[in-house]
Amino acid sequence: MMAVRPLSKELQAKAIAELNENPERIPEDIEYIKEWLRKQPHLNARMDDQLILSYLRGCKFSLEKTKTKLDALYTLKGLLPEFFSNRDPFRKEIQGILKLGLNLPLPKTTAPDAPRIMLQRTLRDPSLYKIEDVATVSLMISEIMVLEDDQYIVGGLVLFNDLTNASIGLMSLMTPSLAKKSMTFYEEAYPVRPKEMHFFNIPSFFDTLMNIIKPFMKEKMQRRMRFHHTNRIEQMYEYFPKSILPAEYGGDAGPIQDLIDYWKKKVEDYAPWFKEDYKYVSNESRRIGKPKTATDLFGMEGSFRKLNVD
């Protein structure tokens, strides 16, 4: 028996119209991907039906794209230990970042089939935490959403980046190496369709920061970016209506602390899952053909410490 959630009627209609979904064929497609994963000697892959279905939907039910993306998921998890090897929600640094609420999916959407909106905020004091730990928490929340949030997978994602707290110290943390790793993971190994990225209250140094990141972004992604040189939140209501925003943004959706508390507990509840997830990576020494290395994917072998997988 397949363990997948039924979609709401609005999301189901969208999945059929935009993602090539054929509800009757889903069990067959999931089984095909499972069978392929079992045959890959280098992969120790999760066999969760819901996770595989999220990747099928993210790849518009192209079986070849789904295989490529899942292969990239386990390969990159093995090559990026700085993001994936220490995902204990109760680790002091992760607790501190969760309490700041830097990545907050908003519970309400603008329509039943609309994208999930993610509020992203910046560290007020970048010296407090390592940027790799900030990225780790962002990825932890994103992975929970891939497993749980059909709105995110079918409707897509809109980012609302609030740069109010951004300081010049952020510049020294965002290295080309980190930008390359982050963008490679999100673009090559992730099943979510980003629709738009809005940047609000942009600081003067932001152009320099974007010049570091943009070379590693696909053109399609760059075209979806919207820059708002204003600190007047009411000018954002055209894109993010008050009905879905927290009270701190003049919205009607309750205090931001409620969202922070919800996501902190949610990530903590996933502690056993994250602990177990560490074993689901690629063992490149067993790959048929040429093993994939950090040099192949990032062009900077020396800056990586690889995972040794038995």
UniProtKB/TrEMBL annotation:
<dbReference type="GO" id="GO:1902936">
    <property type="term" value="F:phosphatidylinositol bisphosphate binding"/>
</dbReference>
<dbReference type="InterPro" id="IPR036273">
    <property type="entry name" value="CRAL/TRIO_N_dom_sf"/>
</dbReference>
<protein>
    <submittedName>
        <fullName>CRAL/TRIO domain</fullName>
    </submittedName>
</protein>
<feature type="domain" description="CRAL-TRIO">
    <location>
        <begin position="87"/>
        <end position="257"/>
    </location>
</feature>
<dbReference type="GO" id="GO:0016020">
    <property type="term" value="C:membrane"/>
</dbReference>
<dbReference type="InterPro" id="IPR036865">
    <property type="entry name" value="CRAL-TRIO_dom_sf"/>
</dbReference>
<dbReference type="InterPro" id="IPR001251">
    <property type="entry name" value="CRAL-TRIO_dom"/>
</dbReference>
<dbReference type="Pfam" id="PF00650">
    <property type="entry name" value="CRAL_TRIO"/>
</dbReference>
